[in-house]
What does this fold into?
Amino acid sequence: MAELKVGDTAPDFDTLNDAGERVRLSDLRRKRVVLYFYPKDNTTGCTAQACAFRDSYPQITDQNAIVLGVSPDSAKSHQSFRTKHDLPFPLLLDPEHKIAEAYDVWREKSMYGRKYMGILRSHFVIDEEGRIADAKYNVKAADSARLSLATLEA
It folds into this structure.
């Protein structure tokens, strides 16, 4: 899979959010979408990234945009994470990594010399026509929301 670039068509997806509602990217045309990928609910970096999006959410919605978070966690885990951190946006279920694979963020990683497959922290800003307006792979948790908002405001 090749990394997505500005101008590419964003891969469509059809999944459920943490409330059990169906979410299709193609149904969100006419809005801009910040789609961010994170490895795991309730971990330090993922919490920092989610809370930064929470804190920036009013400015993001002012730009005719919504935020969607994606990880392989379960609906129950997502619900707990959203409630605990008062997240105003849905978290999408991707247990089989289909969305992550389509966006080329399901990658081989290494920790303490052990190799495994996991989510590469990334975000994508998708325009009203379904094209990639910004793609950041391996983004720092603390920078993701700020960089997404900068793209939306540009």
Summary: The beta strands are 14-16, 22-24, 32-37, 65-71, 91-93, 106-111, 114-119, 122-126, 132-137. The longest strand covers residues 65-71.
